[in-house]
């Protein structure tokens, strides 16, 4: 069997590569690693993996295999080349560690006859079929650390800070970090708020005697940092707080994975191999109520986990 990591890297991918490789070797199978995601499958960048090749990586962020987004793989011709490369080496199965786009690719490969199992790995945590994806806990914690640090200086200067975090079209990281960090306002793509409403909430917080305020903005929110700043410029004299902006960008995708991400990656990587062993293919492994589950890739591809609006409301109540 072969393993690859695809799409945006996520902390914990290495732990998943290790778990898949060692899980396969423990069953007496041969394991191969594919470089740079689907691009390496098309370009035949496939190498054998031994137990020691995946040693000393569980604590590292990123992915030792490299990752890429491959436009060629979306085309049937690209996938046909990839399938030929696997067949020529006698590779019968593939584990794909990646997020939404990557699992759409694995769903296509499964439809075309390959034994594929997907392992959900994306900081965005937008994948259907699992409560949590590898990397999202680390991204939430990095965002939270930034919020905690900004709150310190916000408090000293009686300022408001707007913190933009990643997540593409999903507000999970912003919501969880905002709730944990005691944010005054959280702006998500799934639950729109206008710049005027944000400004109003900050004005009200100032009037209630707050010494600082944190606004967490998901990168996909329509009320982005630019829109907020433009609006704020017009009204700042009446709001009370000065507003500063911090965009975290790719910082939230780097660094060492948390214990939760390493454990999740180890469980799901091993579970993917177990699926293949019992002939279960064309599925995504995931976690539901802390139990490993699997769902057909065909049902997952292109769908997005809905946001937990109850948590958004809870954050609002806590900000009084
Ligand atoms: O999907 C992970 C992610 O980090 C998103 O949160 C973000 O929108 C996107 O990837 C950034 O992509 P890139 O690394 O290609 O700029």
List keywords for this structure.
elongated, 320 residues, binds 6-O-phosphono-beta-D-fructofuranose, single chain, 18% strand, 43% helix
Describe this structure in words.
The protein is an alpha/beta fold and 320 residues long. The chain is built from eleven helices and eleven strands. The chain has helices at 13-26, 37-42, 76-88, 100-111, 136-157, 172-180, 195-207, 225-239, 259-277, 297-300, 309-318, and strands at 2-6, 31-34, 46-49, 93-98, 115-120, 159-165, 185-187, 213-218, 242-247, 283-288, 291-296. The longest helix has 22 residues, at 136-157. The mean pLDDT is 96.
Distance between the termini: 54 Å
Shape: elongated
Structural class: alpha/beta
List each distinct ligand once: 6-O-phosphono-beta-D-fructofuranose
Please describe the biggest sheet, giving its number of strands, its sense, and whether it closes into a barrel.
Answer: 7 strands, mixed
Biggest β-sheet: strands ordered side by side in the sheet: 3-2-1-4-5-10-11
């Amino acid at each position: 069997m072969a393993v690859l990591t695809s799409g945006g890297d996520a902390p914990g991918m290495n732990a998943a590569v290790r778990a898949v490789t060692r899980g396969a070797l423990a069953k007496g199978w041969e394991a191969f690693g594919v470089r740079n995601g689907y691009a390496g499958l098309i370009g035949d960048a496939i190498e054998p993996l031994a137990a020691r090749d995946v040693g000393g990586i569980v604590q590292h962020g990123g992915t030792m295999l490299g990752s890429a987004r491959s436009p060629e793989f979306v085309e049937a011709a690209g996938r046909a080349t990839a399938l030929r490369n696997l067949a020529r080496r006698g590779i019968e199965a593939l584990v794909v560690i990646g997020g939404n786009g990557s699992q759409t690719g694995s769903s296509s490969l499964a439809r075309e006859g390959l034994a594929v199992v997907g392992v959900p790995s994306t900081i965005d945590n937008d994948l259907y079929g699992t409560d949590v994806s590898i990397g999202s806990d680390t991204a939430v914690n990095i965002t939270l650390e930034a919020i905690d640090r900004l709150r310190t200086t916000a408090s000293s200067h009686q300022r408001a800070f707007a913190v933009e975090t990643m997540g593409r079209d999903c507000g999970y990281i912003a919501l969880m970090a905002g709730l944990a960090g005691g944010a005054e306002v959280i702006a998500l793509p799934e639950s729109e708020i206008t710049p005027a409403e944000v400004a109003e909430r900050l004005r009200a917080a100032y009037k209630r005697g707050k010494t600082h305020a944190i606004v967490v903005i998901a990168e996909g929110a329509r009320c982005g940092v630019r829109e907020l700043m433009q609006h704020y410029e017009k009204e700042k004299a009446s709001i009370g707080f000065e507003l500063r902006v911090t965009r975290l960008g790719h910082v939230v995708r780097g660094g060492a994975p948390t214990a939760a991400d390493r454990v999740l990656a180890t469980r799901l990587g091993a579970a993917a191999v177990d699926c293949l062993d019992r002939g279960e293919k064309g599925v995504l492994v995931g976690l539901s109520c802390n139990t490993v589950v699997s769902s057909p890739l065909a049902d997952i591809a292109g769908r997005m986990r809905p946001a937990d609006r109850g948590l958004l409301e809870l954050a609002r109540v806590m900000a009084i």
